[in-house]
């Protein structure tokens, strides 16, 4: 849990001061977009290697039985050996990446440093697998512990911004002939936290035992597939899918809906692009429009993250009464209206802060609703183990879509802002920036209207409703006098 929180801190702590740091090294906003994309790229590289490596000694892996039936065969033969040395190596890579970030001589080194930190953050896969296989194949336990893991990741995201805000009060100083400002100090602080984490990982991390793996693996299909969000760069980690699983709001049905799942992937891609664009442009926009420093930028970004937590809490209070398709539509409409209000030549500070709060809140309302719909539309196979495998595969598709959107959105947002930062185009910059989000939100609303009825949870339709939840039926009154023959 501590490792999960620190991985998330390493993602968020440098975001508010990243643009100021790049300017001091001679960078521009296009390099800012690449610096934002660097962390998810590094995490994706690490994930690709670690996703099939839950086990320990290679001699145990060779003992796994194989099956002639390809559809029912497990993925155990693909597993790579994982030892505590692997985890510690990734921690050392993260330490080196943070140190390189603090001592970077140019913007290219900053991008490379964020890739290394992302590779270290990819160790979230091992934390996720450790929690999954510590549940003794108990369905209730795996869901509750995944919620706890997501809560720790969310705490890490918020704590990273809070620590960065606290470090704003530390005056600059010189270390080894290098001037250490707030952005550099944040990276050094994360290197220190990773260094403190290293002995704990070395002494306590153990590879998953083969007997434990076999026990859990045999029950897959009987137990629900654990929420999968291995990437450390997800804003609240595994919290959103874990909440959906834990509350039982969506379950695969016997009627797979491939078309609806594809539509949800498209919606999720564009929604994450919008949110990523806000994060990338936030620092440079506040610097250019309001002449804010690192502290003001950090405070407002902190408001954005806290608004996300409010959105999650609001969804939990409404989920029992308001269907997910209505929550999705309401969140998108509010986002659409918010972007529309912002399309004006000048942007007041108070209005911009309100924009951040509303969009941060609406993003998680929509994200939770989309996750519910996506899980519900997956469908079941005849074999429960195939359902488990299929469900895990499609959830990885959703995670990959979100990670790809974050990478592409970061790069594109940097180039868009750079294009409209030319002297002749500055008067149109606000219209261009908010107009992109306005158009995307309008597109998502139209898609939601078209598929509104298909976004109703099938699993809830098939459930027996409680008496107090049954809607009122129209009363039928007979006008015939039954006493007369």
Query: What's the main sheet like?
Result: 2 strands, antiparallel
- Overall morphology: globular
> Using only CA atoms, what is the Rg?
24 Å
Q: Round the mean pLDDT to the nearest integer and report it.
A: 82
Secondary-structure class? mainly alpha
List the domain count as a whole number: 2
CATH topology of the largest domain: Growth Hormone, Chain: A
* Number of E-type strands: 2
Q: Say which CATH homologous superfamily of the largest domain is assigned.
A: MFS general substrate transporter like domains
CATH class of the largest domain: Mainly Alpha
Q: Count the helices. How many? A: 18
Q: What oligomeric state best describes the polypeptide chains here?
A: single chain
- Approximate helicity band: 55-70%
Strand order of the largest sheet: 1-2
Strand content: under 5%
User: Which regions are unreliable across 5 or more consecutive residues at pLDDT < 50?
Assistant: 57-78, 464-475
Q: Tell me which CATH architecture of the largest domain applies here.
A: Up-down Bundle
| Amino- and carboxy-terminal Cα gap | 78 Å
């Amino acid at each position: 849990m501590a490792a999960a929180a620190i991985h998330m801190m390493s993602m968020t702590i440098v975001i508010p001061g990243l643009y100021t740091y790049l300017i001091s090294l001679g960078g521009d906003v296009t390099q800012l977009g690449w610096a934002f994309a660097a962390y998810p790229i590094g995490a994706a590289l690490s994930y690709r290697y670690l996703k099939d490596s839950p086990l320990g000694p290679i001699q145990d892996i060779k003992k796994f039985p194989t099956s002639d039936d390809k559809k029912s065969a497990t993925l155990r033969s693909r597993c790579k050996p994982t030892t505590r040395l692997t985890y510690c190596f990734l921690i050392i890579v993260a330490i080196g990446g943070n140190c390189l970030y603090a001592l970077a001589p140019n913007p290219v080194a900053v991008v490379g440093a964020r890739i290394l930190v992302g590779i270290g953050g990819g160790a979230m896969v091992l934390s996720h697998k450790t929690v999954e296989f510590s549940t003794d194949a108990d369905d209730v336990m795996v869901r509750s512990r995944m919620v706890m893991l997501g809560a720790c990741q969310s705490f890490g995201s918020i704590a990273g911004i809070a620590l960065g805000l606290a470090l704003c009060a530390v005056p600059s100083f010189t270390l080894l002939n290098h001037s250490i400002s707030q952005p550099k100090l944040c990276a050094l602080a994360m290197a220190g936290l990773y260094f403190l984490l290293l002995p704990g990982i070395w002494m306590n991390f153990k590879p998953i035992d083969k007997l434990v793996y076999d026990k859990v693996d045999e029950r897959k299909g009987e137990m629900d597939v654990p929420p999968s969000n291995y990437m450390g760069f997800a804003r609240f980690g595994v919290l959103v899918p874990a909440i959906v699983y834990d509350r039982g709001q969506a379950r695969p049905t016997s009627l797979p809906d491939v078309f609806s799942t594809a539509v949800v992937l498209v919606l999720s891609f564009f929604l994450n692009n919008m949110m990523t664009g806000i994060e990338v442009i936030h620092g440079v926009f506040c610097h250019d429009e309001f002449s804010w420093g690192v502290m003001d930028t950090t405070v407002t970004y902190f408001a954005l993250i806290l608004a996300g937590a409010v959105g999650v809490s609001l969804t939990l209070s409404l989920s029992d009464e308001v269907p997910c398709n209505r929550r999705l539509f309401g969140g998108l409409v509010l986002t659409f209206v918010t972007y529309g209000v912002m399309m004006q030549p000048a942007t007041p500070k108070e209005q911009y802060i309100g924009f951040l709060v509303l969009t941060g809140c609406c993003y998680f309302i929509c994200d939770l609703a989309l996750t519910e719909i996506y899980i519900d539309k997956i469908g079941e196979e005849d074999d429960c183990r195939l359902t488990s495998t299929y469900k895990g595969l499609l959830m990885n598709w959703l995670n990959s879509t979100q990670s790809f959107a974050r990478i592409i959105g970061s790069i594109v947002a940097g180039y868009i802002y750079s294009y409209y930062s030319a002297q002749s185009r500055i008067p149109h910059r606000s219209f261009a920036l908010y107009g992109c989000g306005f158009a995307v939100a309008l597109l998502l609303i139209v898609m939601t209207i078209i598929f509104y009825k298909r976004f109703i949870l099938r699993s809830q339709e098939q459930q027996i409703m409680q008496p107090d939840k049954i809607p009122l039926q129209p009363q039928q009154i007979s006008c015939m006098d039954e006493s007369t023959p």
